[in-house]
Amino acid sequence: GAVVSQHPSRVICKSGTSVKIECRSLDFQATTMFWYRQFPKQSLMLMATSNEGSKATYEQGVEKDKFLINHASLTLSTLTVTSAHPEDSSFYICSARDREQGKGTEAFFGQGTRLTVV
Amino acid sequence: QKEVEQNSGPLSVPEGAIASLNCTYSDRGSQSFFWYRQYSGKSPELIMSIYSNGDKEDGRFTAQLNKASQYVSLLIRDSQPSDSATYLCAVKTSYDKVIFGPGTSLSVIP
Hints:
Mean pLDDT of chain A: 89
Mean pLDDT of chain B: 93
Strand content of chain A: over 45%
Oligomer: heterodimer
Largest sheet of chain A: 7 strands, mixed
Distance between the termini of chain A: 36 Å
Helix content of chain A: under 10%
Strand content of chain B: over 45%
Number of helices of chain A: 0
Structural class of chain B: mainly beta
Number of strands of chain B: 11
Number of strands of chain A: 11
């Protein structure tokens, strides 16, 4: 399958600081990338959908000013958690859909980022 | 009603047995269905995708889809201890979002 690279895999930051997470599609162009959050023993919750060159679409209850998403190119999307607080500690996962394979195709996941805010 | 539902488990089966995982969804217009496996602390990995009614087999895995009943299942034959993980059902809805179920925890007992 296609490769999606996500960095960093683990980050610890102080409360009040911002953290940027990168998601790259390495061998395909991704028109759409998805950002998920997963709390322990819970399923993936979709946070937002980003399309290259346009603003992200956020799910209900997700603060767009806190979780800044940028999808400036067909191979890179970033999620910035601004003014992080301990309750933002979670596993953040990105996924990307291959433009060439059409809308019916499954999305491929990055390795995930474990964020801990202290 | 949640969009994608699964039995949370845990489901325990002996090694070599068939594990059966079930999933229902609410959006009747959904067209694409996926099963992912997730080990603790890791990102999900795709096992199967299915788009048409009926069965789809890939090695020890068989996905079954019944759109009329809004039901998807995954069968794992000859279960191995390495299959112990959480299995996530995902549905691409008619509004083009991939929604995940809560996952079913599977434990294969040697």
